[in-house]
Amino acid sequence: MSDVKNFKLYVDGEWVNSVSGETFLSDNPAKPKQILGIFQKGNQEDINKAVEAAEKAFEVWSQTPAPKRGLILLRTAQLLRENKKSLAREMTMEMGKIIAEARGDVQEAIDITEYMAGEGRRLFGFTTPSELRKKFCMTIRMPVGICGLITPWNFPMAIPSWKIMTALICGNTIVFKPSSDTPLCATRLVEALEEAGLPKGVLNMVTGPGDTAGMSLVRHNKVEVISFTGHKDTGTSILREAGLKRVGLEMGGKNGIIIMDDANLDLAVDGVIWGGYGTTGQRCTAASRVIVHDRIKEKFETMLIKRIKKLKLGDGLEPDTDIGPLINKAAQEKSAKYVEVGKNEGAKLLIGGKVPKTDGFFFAPTLFADCSVDMRIAQEEIFGPIVSLISVGDFDEAIEAINSIEYGLSSAIYTNDVSKAFEAITRIEAGLTYINSSTIGSEVHLPFGGIKHTGLGAREGGIEGINEFSEIKTVYVDYSGKLQKAQIDLA
Ligand code: NAD
Residue 400 in 3-state DSSP? Predict the structure, then answer.
């Protein structure tokens, strides 16, 4: 353990130990004996210090011209790009994502950073005519204040960047509480911002447990915004505790793909493999329910099984690996539990369902057929490589099946019928719908987020992301030199 590096909290521009001195470890889920670092277990006292630093820094940062804030983001993007290879490598080691996907995660962080840097020269309000003469009306954007950002482990650079860069460009200061499964990736992101010249106190990072460090941030009365991405149950308790804050919640998904009988089945198989088993099924947008038209069901099952058999499990750093490990032992046990649940519910296990005999937290890609929409395996977020096939007789039944779920994040339909495609766009209850591609593939200049029990109060990315982290002020300038009364001086 002596050669394992000790990482710190980042508070007021300094790298410091936690007040309690307590620490935790981050390991490699493909080789759990490999320890990647020792991290500080922050608690309420550390959060208090971080909020104090963010409060001090707010006055200067909020008054820094937004294009200047953008320059720091641009430099950060440059540093992330220069270090993309090593950042992706560390990410694969810390959370198991295969190396190509890890590079994609870093690229997404670069993309949102560049995008938000450009927003520094826009941050548009609007002007509109007044109902009175010699009066000018406009809106401007103001920062909200101190933002508490709480993030999950599954996109350990991209998701923190969606929040951090947007909050920064709007002139807010930040206390960032990353996931305890990926503190190394979070630390690297903060290091890039520091090296790019972000003034001290503007961004503070407290690693540590959700129920102490995270919850202290949620409850802190000087924090104006809580932006959270993670599990639905965590989001629910955050909402209960946040008080009168602006709260943005991005939570779980149980995303469906519809495959109609006229679809290009090769394309659809590609989509299900990528959506269902990519990142080992651990994406909020993972396609864990596949709704197949009866007429092509058997053919599709055969094609899918053939492809699943070829998927290679292994360390994500190996170039021929298709599927890396799950994030930790608990996730492996959860997938195993749901296989039993599925079997007991009467679903037909077509392939997989096993924990391979290796040290890492691997799980075989698993496919269930003959699922009904109300089975638990077709309703609950498993966050593992488990896909449920549900067969339907026609388009209306497919729409009903895809909507029969509490979540509403992503969705897809494979069809060559343009009318069905457009009808699906308006009838599917989800924040995202893809036509003839999988449930995955968001781009940073478009809004991202879910409806129903997936999302509450926010979209990230694009101009909607700016809305989450800025206040709109309405401004009236009366240059008539006399008292003019709106709604009263009608002539
Ligand atoms: P999680 O809810 O367990 O943890 C997320 C974050 O919340 C972590 O930083 C954690 O430490 C913190 N936390 C935990 N308990 C807390 C508490 N009581 N108070 C404050 N903070 C607390 O989620 P996870 O396992 O890291 O991530 C997986 C989940 O995230 C899945 O449900 C997935 O669908 C969801 N997710 C959603 C999106 C989206 O955009 N909708 C994106 C990625 C992941």
Answer: helix
